[in-house]
Design a protein that fits this description.
There is one protein chain. It contains 18 helices and 6 strands. By secondary structure, the chain is mainly alpha-helical. It folds into 3 domains: 99 residues, Fumarase/aspartase (N-terminal domain) (Fumarase C, Chain B, domain 1), CATH 1.10.275; 240 residues, Fumarase C, Chain A, domain 2, CATH 1.20.200.10; 59 residues, Orthogonal Bundle (Ribonucleotide Reductase Protein R1, domain 1). The chain is 61% helix and 5% strand. It is elongated, with a radius of gyration of 30 Å. The chain has a two-stranded antiparallel ribbon with strand order 1-2.
């Protein structure tokens, strides 16, 4: 099985997708099938127990994987090489291994089992990131900052709302991943074209139960690949949620913004040539990783349509995209979690940025106040826009220009109220309440 490059691998996923672990998982399927045949009286009683004892005495280690590779160079068939290596290692009882089965019965069922285990790892990583995002959302619930649309200052909001928005997306990611894990968590031992001609349905049911999977109701010689595409879709969307966070950090760390930044460790350097540099390197890395995660989705969809009851055009693709996608998702979730745990937040700079446009961000509130005072919408809009355009040209503060305008009726406390940021934030607690973030564990 192809492994992700070490730079973007996690120890858990590296072990999960190792060649030795793949063969151990194939053995799990084969042993469960032998024990199923025992219950049907087709295999001598105790065969499964003998095989398990032999496997415990001589585990399927790296040396076993090397022997399979050696045999595969001769047979040019991985399962045949595997079963021959098993016979060498486990002795006489191994003659009952693979009884009635075809290669894909073992490969697809074992691969699905590995994917379920990978999903559990990713779910734990996703939960950790979700918890950190929740903490930031609650911590900064009432911290005012400027909201931006099209990259331009829009109106006041709170810093916590940025994280609350992503927290809700991560909740959806968790639900999609759980659904995809259920979809991929199926066993198939239905024989050469899915007719159970050589292996009865009871064997499949026994194996599925033993492995914690569900029997796939209808198959041909492969598990339908829309199940895998669903998983890759869920992972691609998780990557996109990570990219949302990474892109926000990258923008907030810009020199012109400086509202938040990645932590900078003692001894860390930002540039080989410019000693002053602090760059959002982790967030940039994660933006690239998100692109990779989305790129695996297209070949996953291409794998769904296979010739008749089976071909192997999907096999080479899956040897790359399944370990890569699950490993990258785990890596990205863990790295994004570390970024947010170490995030440096500058509330003073947020207040400075809110005032940077000299009151322009309160234009809509002034517009509504003028309408409430009796002006038509069109007349009110013209008054505010003309003053705003003067502010853009550097002529002063929007409030002062409006106060000096004899064509608008607002003055004193009424005009001041239109420039109060607290007015924009009065429903923040209601948003938090209906999000469920306070009740979430």
């Amino acid at each position: 099985m192809r492994a992700m490059i070490a730079r973007y691998a996690t120890p858990d996923m590296t072990r999960l997708w190792s060649e030795a672990e793949r063969y151990r998982t194939w053995l799990e399927v084969e042993l469960a099938a032998v024990e199923a045949w025992e219950t049907l009286g087709e295999v001598p009683s105790g065969t499964g127990q003998s095989l398990r004892a032999a496997a415990a005495e001589r585990p399927l280690d790296e040396a076993f994987a090397e022997r399979v590779a050696e045999l595969e160079r001769q047979t040019r068939h991985d399962i045949v090489a595997f079963t021959r290596a098993l016979s060498e290692r486990l002795g006489e009882p191994a003659r009952f291994v693979h009884l009635g089965l075809t290669s894909t019965d073992v490969v697809d069922t074992a691969q699905n089992l590995l994917l379920v285990r990978a999903c559990h790892l990713i779910e734990a990583d996703l939960a950790a990131l979700t918890d950190v995002v929740r903490t930031l959302a609650l911590r900064h619930r009432h911290v005012p900052c400027i909201g931006r649309t099209h990259g331009v200052h829009a109106e006041p909001m709170t810093f916590g709302l940025k994280f609350l928005n992503v927290w809700t997306a991560l909740q959806r990611d968790a639900r999609r991943l759980a659904t995809a894990r259920e979809a991929i968590g199926v066993a198939m031992l239905s024989g050469s074209v899915g007719t159970f001609a050589h292996v009865p349905p009871q064997v499949e049911e026994h194996v599925a139960t033993a492995l914690g999977l569900t029997p796939d109701p209808v198959t041909n010689q492969t598990v339908a690949r829309d199940r895998h595409a669903e998983l890759l879709s869920a992972l691609a969307l998780i990557g996109t949620s990570i990219e949302r966070l990474a892109l926000e950090v990258r923008h907030l760390q810009r020199s012109e913004v400086r509202e938040a930044r990645e932590g900078f460790a003692k001894g860390q350097t930002g540039s080989s040539s410019m000693p002053h540099k602090k760059n959002p390197i982790a967030s940039e890395n994660l933006t690239g990783v998100a692109r990779l995660l989305r790129s695996y989705l297209s070949p996953a969809f291409e794998d769904v349509a296979l010739w008749h009851e089976r071909d192997i055009s999907h096999s080479s693709v899956e040897r790359v995209i399944l370990p890569d996608a699950t490993t990258l998702a785990s890596y990205a979730l863990r790295r994004m979690t570390r970024v947010l745990e170490d995030l440096v937040v500058d509330e003073a700079r947020m207040r400075e940025n809110m005032d940077a446009l000299h009151g322009l961000v309160y234009s809509q509130r002034v517009l509504h106040a003028l309408i409430e005072a009796g002006a038509t919408r069109e007349a009110a809009y013209d008054v505010v826009q003309q003053a705003a355009l003067r502010v853009w040209e550097g002529e002063g503060h929007l409030r002062d220009l409006l106060a000096a305008d004899p064509d608008q009726p607002l003055e004193g406390a009424a005009l001041d109220a239109a420039f109060d940021p607290a007015w924009y934030l009065r429903h923040v607690d209601a948003i938090y309440a209906r999000s469920g973030v306070e009740e979430a564990a």
